[in-house]
Amino acid sequence: MAALQSWCQIWVVRPDGAEVATFVLEGHGAPDLGAVDAVARFALMARRLGVGIVLAEVSPTLRALLELTGLPVEVKGQSERREEPLRIQEGQEEVHPDDLPP
């Protein structure tokens, strides 16, 4: 079995930016969608508790997976994307007169 690799650090921060806790997300080999799920669950739990998360020392593979899945998280040292984690945007489809019927 491969040795444990650190995929990222997860910092739990209050709205004023003060650090509350730090966790290391690690696993055997390269991160996969299970690691993305873990980050999403941390973000959701933090949001429910009124705090947020910031990722630090993110492995390139995990960073690529987060971008691929569209999970908006703040990464330390990276400019904010002005999105809240796990926000789902709803929209309505425009209908044009020349559209084909469904």
Descriptive account of the structure:
- The longest helix is centred in the middle third of the chain and has 16 residues.
- The chain is globular and about 50 Å long.
- About 16% of the residues have low confidence.
- It has 2 helices and 4 strands.
- A 4-stranded mixed sheet has the order 2-1-3-4, with helices on one face.
- It starts with a strand and ends in a 27-residue tail after the last strand.
- Strand 3, helix 2 and strand 4 form a beta-alpha-beta unit.
- The protein has a domain of 59 residues.
- With 102 residues, the chain is of the alpha+beta class.
N- to C-terminal separation? Answer: 52 Å
Rg from alpha-carbon coordinates = 17 Å
How much of the sequence lies in strands comes to 25-35%
Task: Say how many strands there are.
Answer: 4
Question: How confident overall, as mean pLDDT?
Answer: 79
The biggest beta sheet reads:
4 strands, mixed
Shape: globular
- What is the ordering of alpha helices and beta strands? EEHEHE
In which range does the helix fraction lie? Answer: 25-40%
Structural class: alpha+beta
**Stretches where pLDDT falls below 50 for ≥5 residues?**
79-94
Work out the helix count: 2
As laid out across the biggest beta sheet, the strand order is 2-1-3-4
